[in-house]
Amino acid sequence: MTDIDMKWHEEGICATTDPDLFFPEGGGAGNAIKVCLGCPVRRRCLDHALTAPEDHGVWGGTTRNQRRRMTKAA
Asked: Is the full-model pTM beyond 0.85?
C-alpha cells in the first residue's frame, strides 16, 4: 500500500534543502545520507520509499540499491 498522505514530508529536513542533493547524478549520495541522519521523519520517509516504491534518489537515508537489497531480504 502506497503512503498517499505525504504530509510528513513537510517536517523533513529535505523540505528546506536543495532537492538536487537527494537526486545526485552519477552517485555521490553521501551528503544527502548525512542530511537524512538527523531528520525527524527519516523512518517514515524510508517506509514510503519501500512501499511506493521510489526507484530514484535518496529516501530515508538510503540509496536505490540499498532499498532494493532491503526489499529482497524481507
From this structure: yes
CB neighbour class for 5 (10 Å; exposed up to 12, middle 13-18, buried from 19): exposed
pLDDT digits (tens, 9 = 90+) for 46-59: 999 999 889 999 99
Residues 6+ away with beta carbon under 8 Å from 58 = 22, 23, 24, 29, 32, 33, 36
Quick one: residue 18, left, alpha or beta (phi over 0 = left, psi -120 to 50 = alpha)? beta
Domain spans in the chain, listed from the N-terminal domain onward? 7-73
